[in-house]
Amino acid sequence: MDSLPIDESLVADADTEKNRLFRRNRRNQHELDAHVEHVLKRRAKFRRMMKGLWAFLKTRKRAVCDQRADLLTHLKLRGL
């Protein structure tokens, strides 16, 4: 069985195209990684901010409740 001759320029063109696609894929992968990292940082930053806000509000709420309880206790002890 005779093998068909392979044109060397086609092999070189195929290798060149393969290398071009590989470089483009690496660039796209880097851009995707950068985007995902940015989104995760943004989400983590938002989550940290909300945790801090909740801690602040929770302590303020507790402080107000404690003051109210102290006032009610004080008024109750005075008989008012």
Report on the architecture of this protein.
This protein is mostly helical. 89% of the residues lie in helices and 0% in strands. It starts with 7 loop residues before the first helix and ends with a helix. The mean pLDDT is 81.
Short description:
The chain is mostly helical and 80 residues long. The chain has one helix and no strands.
Q: Helix coverage percent of residues?
A: over 70%
How large, in whole angstroms, is the Cα Rg? 34 Å
- Structural class, judged by helices and strands? mainly alpha
The termini sit apart by 113 Å
Amount of beta strand: under 5%
Low-confidence stretches: none
Q: Strand count, sense and closure of the main sheet?
A: none
Output the number of helix runs. 1
Integer average pLDDT: 81
Shape: rod-shaped
Report the order of strands and helices.
Answer: H
Oligomeric state: single chain
Count of beta strands: 0
